[in-house]
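Margin note: ligand = adenosine-5'-diphosphate.
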Amino acid sequence: MSTQLTHPAVSCLEVSKSFADLEVLRAISLDVAQGEVVSILGPSGSGKSTLLRCMNRLEQPTRGLIRIHGDPMGYLEEAPGRFRELPERDVARQRRQIGMVFQRFNLFPHMSVLENIIEAPLRVLGSGKAEATEKALDLLARVGLSAKRDAYPEQLSGGQQQRVAIARALAMEPRVMLFDEPTSALDPELVGEVLDVISDVSRSGMTMVIVTHEISFARDVSDRVVFIDNGSIVEMGPPQQVIDHPQEERTRTFLSRVK
Ligand code: ADP
Ligand code: MG
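Resulting structure:
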């Protein structure tokens, strides 16, 4: 177990990804420590979503390796440096360690809030109904939606739906949470309540990677900020450096447009 603690929660080693002859990620190397909160900033089309999707193997890198807590995503390391590709069933099990929250909330429309949250724990983790319900109610309290347990998604605002989506991801007890522009689809007045919930999760010690255009939020919540352009890391470091004193012209140009 002690060696386990020394592994980064997420390790990307020279990860590249191409779609046909379009190279979207170019040799990205990035380690996220356990409990660390890393925000990824960058222009639209720079590869941010593709990088997150590689982390939980919704996409397979063309080159390079991603490890989650030391285990290579999609592979079994039979001996140091010797890998065997895993069947999809095993990849699905690996993927369960990683919660993901998307721009669109993707709740099940025909299920109540409570049913949305307990669905995967019941079916995938094999939790008992009483246990799953108790945990779901705790999570609903944490995202401030206890009163909505029996509501259906269409009866909720976008901000409330996204808070349920976060609770639903947490119910799987992931080791890492990925957020892909979690507030981009929301009306401006609903952004704050979702960012507050994400901040709260970050204070619980969860390892998080957050793609966001909310610069002041990224400054507040992140241990480190990564600026990506055209599939490469241009600059990374503490928010006081990358956001407040960017070294690179491309970072400065981007920040001046979104700030
Ligand atoms: P971002 O999230 O930074 O806006 P994306 O990772 O979504 O960027 O996309 C990066 C580039 O990869 C874009 O040019 C996009 O069109 C392309 N891309 C993303 N997914 C696919 C795909 N499945 N097939 C082909 N091209 C894709
Ligand atoms: Mg994206």
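The pocket of adenosine-5'-diphosphate (ligand 1) is lined by residues 19, 22, 24, 42, 44-50 (CB under 6 Å).
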